[in-house]
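ESCALATION

Customer reports they have been waiting on this structure for their group meeting. Please prioritize. Original submission:
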Amino acid sequence: MVEEGYVKFNYDWEKKPIAIENFGELNRYRNKLYKLGLIGVFENGIGFGNISIRLGESNLFIISGTRTGALASLSEKHYSKVVEFDFERSWLRCIGLVVASSESLSHARIYQLDREANAVIHVHSMNMWKRLLGKVPETGKHADCGTPELAEEISRLFRETEVMEKKIIVTAGHKEGIISFGKDLEEAYNILLKYFKG
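Update from on-call: job pushed to the front of the queue and completed.
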């Protein structure tokens, strides 16, 4: 597997501009996360963190693009629309001027399993990650970021834990990784903020 921050799934990419209906709100929350250091870039130059919103009643979604974590400010060209995905093939199809985030399959799995979820956020924080291990639902240590194994571990959490109530996941096999989700961006963000401050 390749390093953190790089796409590990197969994809078909239609490179063309997309219009995002709720772009202002989406980007506002992305900016907040960037300012907190929960989305950003490692010392080696590899970006981390991503944010998405569901499109209507479908399982389709808009997500920040791969390798955008290093950018302080994004525009619509830095987001991608995921229009199809297949976990067994570790594949997705996306539209935009950038390829969808390396964590897109994890976002897709949450949208598939929780019909009430309309926003998913994936961030990095070593301090928060250490504090949350053993305290909130966590994926197995064998499941690396951006893989079908992580998507399957998310499925297991929905079957076996209180993840629907807590709406937060710590990725034990993906150091620093934390995922939150909610009925909207505000809820997903506030869940993270509660643990970030606590």
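Sent to customer with the following note: The first strand starts at residue 10 and ends at 15.
Escalation resolved.
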